[in-house]
Amino acid sequence: MTVILPLLFLFTAISGTAVVLVRDPARQVFAIAVNGLVLAILFDGLQAPDVALSELAVGSAAVPLLFLVALMAVRTQSPEEKP
Amino acid sequence: MSVLPYAVAAWLFGIGLYGIATSRNFIHLVGCLGVCQSATYVLLLGLGYRWGGIAPIFYDHPPGTPAVDPVMQALVLTDIVVGATLTALLLVLTIQAHKRGGSLDPEKLRPMRAGGTSGRGQGASRVSDREQSTS
Amino acid sequence: MSPRVRIALLALAALVLLPGAAEVIAGLPPFGSTIAQYGERINAITPEARHVANMVSAINFDLRGLDTLGEEFMLLAAITGTVVLLRGRRGEGNTGHAMRRPGRAVIPRSEAVILACRIAGPLTALFGLYVVLHATVTPGGGFQGGVILASGTLLIYLGEGYAGWRQAIHSHWLDALEGGGALLFALCGLVPMLTGAAFMQNILPLGTFRDLFSGGLMLVENLGVALAVTGGFTQLFLEFMEETRAADEAEEPGEESA
To answer: Residue A40: its pLDDT value, please?
Structure first.
């Protein structure tokens, strides 16, 4: 555990940086999903299985889907006109 | 090692803030806000850890074994669900802003004025350009 | 303000706050040395006082149940806000046509995807139910199981398509689930007061330690949270999906929706 935990923390920092530095929203969705997975593994390493379950389901399934559908809704609708 | 979690939390918050400040797309901005939120999760769980502690679930181990802090885990659990819901609400506001303003760029949206056209700065939509060119 | 000014202000703020942050980080206890006294006491007394093995569930539903009540209603309020914002603009109609971008081919759903979703969907739902029920003995609980169940309904969308999904998931059921879950949680707080106990005091028999039905009132609250979270997240998905449908008729110019 003394070797794994620093590695997990560094992975978390790297994946968080990747979410910010990926500018295209369609690609950022994958970065968000990977970030959720890395966070879930970190929480498991910190002896928090409830939190890891919650973060996995929310951060890798629910939130990327919301982002994808928001992108879909934004790209397929035209902005409405004001008279 | 003894300050690594706190340093990682500070770094994540800083980079998330930088992402929010320099973002050119609202949807990217909401993702950066999620990074700021994950900084708080890392900080809370880092505060609640103990070397050699087990998870605070006494099913396989007898009660009394040194365990990690369950209060921090309860806080982070609530935090995660609240964060996901707020992300959804912010995405809805982004969709509405795009409908009204025609653009997802934070630079291009201006405050709405009563009675006049809604906030459409330099990035005018294609339809109004066509109207102006035909009139 | 222009982007340069914004970045300059951000750098200035970071420079000012960095010494303070470094001071705070140096003052925190070293990572992994001790945990707070409150956590120690909870770990020591809760297995006997409440007969549960999962400390986090005990904190969420019994020891700090009031915070979870607030969080439930926050969830309800945020999802109601989402529904109001989206439906207020779009109307309550139900259409099946997806909006198309011109010039992009529509790829039909492959049969491998349909088969995988039909196998994985019921398994996910079963797993979500297992996680919800074992709130007091293993890692799990209302929140986790509720989100797993909500993502199981997504598999229905992936496998059956939008029409099949809308036939399976009705918005009124989701409203009932969400509101019913929050109401159940609120009732768990008020009903003990009818018997003379305090708000949300654990009045039901506590059961035996490490048994599935242990914890008393915690199980009812757990059920309420699971219903509310499932209904809420599926409602979110439904609202977002509806956004991508084409409007039935063109909106008249000058017409403001309420």
So the answer is: 96
